[in-house]
């Protein structure tokens, strides 16, 4: 049961998905940092697969918009973890 009014969701959605740009910039910076600094310090590179999980979009009962939301959410939460 959805307790959030539909109008609120429509207003919030552009702000939620606009965060993809800062997230991609952050991802690039973290990846460059890891690729340059970790070898210099003798540290092993971290595996992105341990943090970024992309599996919930496979649920058969989701519509295409919900599946895209699951991909975005999995990427964002894994990146920030």
3D architecture notes:
- The protein has a domain at 47-81.
- It starts with 5 loop residues before the first helix and ends with a helix.
- It is elongated.
- The protein is mainly α and 81 residues long.
- It has 3 helices and no strands.
- It has helices at 6-18, 20-41, 64-80.
- The relative contact order is 0.12.
- The model has no long low-confidence stretch (mean pLDDT 88).
SSE run: HHH
- Distance linking N and C termini: 29 Å
Q: Mean pLDDT, nearest integer?
A: 88
Low-confidence parts, pLDDT < 50 over ≥5 residues? none
Global structural class: mainly alpha
Any idea what the shape is? elongated
Count up the helices: 3
Radius of gyration: 16 Å
Helix content: 55-70%
Could you give a short account of the major beta sheet?
none
Approximate strand percentage: under 5%
- Total beta-strand segments: 0
């Amino acid at each position: 049961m959805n307790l959030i009014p539909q109008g609120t969701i429509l207003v919030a959605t552009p702000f939620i998905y606009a965060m993809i740009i800062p997230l991609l910039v952050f991802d690039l910076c973290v990846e460059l940092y890891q690729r340059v600094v970790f070898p210099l310090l003798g540290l092993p590179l971290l595996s992105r697969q341990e943090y970024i999980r992309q599996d919930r979009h496979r649920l058969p009962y989701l519509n295409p918009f919900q599946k895209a939301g699951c991909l975005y959410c999995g990427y964002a939460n894994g990146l920030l973890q």
